[in-house]
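Lab notebook: predicted structure, single chain.

Context: the supervisor wants predicted structures on file for every construct in the current expression panel, including those that have not yet been purified. This is the next one on the list. No modifications to the sequence; it matches the entry in the shared construct table.
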Amino acid sequence: MNDIIFLNGMRFYGYHGVLPSENEIGQIFIVDVTLKVDLKDAGQSDDVADTVNYGEVFEEVKSIVEGKPSRLIEHLAERIAKRINSHYNRVMETKVKITKESPPIPGHYDGVGIEIVRENC
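Prediction complete. Output recorded below exactly as produced.
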């Protein structure tokens, strides 16, 4: 089964980071979430009750990224994956990618970040 729901390029302002300046000034975090979900029932029924409402997922991610700061984006990603997997039984696997476009490190790049994949057990 290869069905997925994805939310790409979600942008939130948060205060996550190890450096004090990141916690004081904050920055934009770009979050991509991919959910492995069996979409066959929803495809046949045309009923949102048979899928995962990506509008609700957006609000869950937003509340975490714009909420309590984490020092590491690895921790932030774990919080997002855990929330999704605990709230949506239809989700078999959650992939979370977090990108910082402007981290406080010298150099030229499009962004730095992490990606995790967590199964819903």
